[in-house]
Amino acid sequence: xxxxxxxxxxxxxxxxxxxxxxxxxxxxxxxxxxxxxxxxxxxxxxxxxxxxxxxxxxxxxxxxxxxxxxxxxxxxxxxxxxxxxxxxxxxxxxxxxxxxxxxxxxxxxxxxxxxxxxxxxxxxxxxxxxxxxxxxxxxxxxxxxxxxxxxxxxxxxxxxxxxxxxxxxxxxxxxxxxxxxxxxxxxxxxxxxxxxxxxxxxxxxxxxxxxxxxxxxxxxxxxxxxxxxxxxxxxxxxxxxxxxxxxxxxxxxxxxxxxxxxxxxxxxxxxxxxxxxxxxxxxxxxxxxxxxxxxxxxxxxxxxxxxxxxxxxxxxxxxxxxxxxxxxxxxxxxxxxxxxxxxxxxxxxxxxxxxxxxxxxxxxxxxxxxx
Amino acid sequence: xxxxxxxxxxxxxxxxxxxxxxxxxxxxxxxxxxxxxxxxxxxxxxxxxxxxxxxxxxxxxxxxxxxxxxxxxxxxxxxxxxxxxxxxxxxxxxxxxx
Lengths: 371, 98
Description:
The complex is a heterodimer.
Chain A: E1 3-10, E2 13-20, E3 27-32, E4 37-43, E5 51-57, E6 61-67, E7 75-76, E8 89-91, E9 97-99, E10 104-110, E11 118-123, E12 126-130, E13 138-139, E14 160-166, E15 174-179, E16 182-186, E17 194-195, E18 216-222, E19 225-233, E20 237-240, E21 248-249, E22 262-264, E23 272-274, E24 292-295, E25 303-305, E26 323-325, E27 333-336, E28 342-345, E29 353-356, E30 362-370
Antiparallel strand pairs in A: 1-2, 1-30, 2-3, 4-5, 5-6, 6-7, 8-9, 10-11, 11-12, 12-13, 14-15, 15-16, 16-17, 18-19, 19-20, 20-21, 22-23, 23-24, 24-25, 26-27, 27-28, 28-29
Chain B: E1 2-5, H1 8-14, E2 19-22, H2 30-40, E3 60-64, E4 67-68, H3 80-83, E5 89-93
């Protein structure tokens, strides 16, 4: 029987929401790792009961947790993230050189083919890989050392590697994104990398079309067309049809093109979702109305989706990893807010309902469709 | 027998009670206590001191016998009453909240 599991990372622990395929009744379990920040948790596509979670704390640093039973029980695994060689420096906020320092894991991306292999995107920006189920971690050092690393500079949220996109047919191709350095791609499994930011324009940096320095908030793609990428930049929603070699803006009629989250419908590769946020200085929806915007044309032409969402006095944010979709016949769309609600739509965004309320601020939402 | 009191989050992580007892060879220092603690509970590696530099994490401090040992050299012997087990060695997290 088909069911859905929603993995929710929050500022104060992880929660797992479960439902059958009707998606009407939800069971909430947790908090797991109560009191810790859970930046992200995600399941292996090969073995959905193998979950990985990033647990961190300003006091105690980083812990990686692993589950083999869909999140019922967990075990801490390896937490040693050591930069390869002499770490060197990146730019600090004031432009001075600053040593690379590991702070936390923002995103865990399990392999598409091996449950023991998982990638971790970390702050200060770097990519790590484990091939033993998270027990040991090694940096994929070609990313930081490809040449522009010394020019990367953190955004206000930290210099985090937050997006990792694996290619379903070409294991050598990986796209990643860093705030606020930009997007990068390898075609040889991580040995060499190149910035893929042509077409991005960021007015807040000295050279608006610079090779690096763009504050990319999130990138997504549809599995059937893995080289078509959609990006929510700091400002601007962007699209690439050539795996990031070039980008063009598809913000179209959005009321504001600032935001964090972006995702693609499970069965319609041209249907994409964003949550417009008022501005980079006011991280909440326009006019106190929480609205998802959907484009069925791959961008430019957007429609607001508000049914079931708060339409007055709503001043929450939806963070970059806090939107996901299921793959049931009628695609489900899910997102979590900094107000602690997780909203779900079982009809591709037409209607929404909170499936849990009043959690701690939601940092990430991942959905597993189980059969 | 050295008695070590952990902060609540680390008790949960290591699946232990409020106090753990460790056998530590002489000389008993902050370094040797933490070495023994991490050897017995590997999941605590990296949570109290940095994996590589072995420096104390900035929001943690070490106390014993009403003294702050945090800024002492990690190789300084701890007070005799900690060595004898009369007093515990405290690992304390900075207070959070308003």
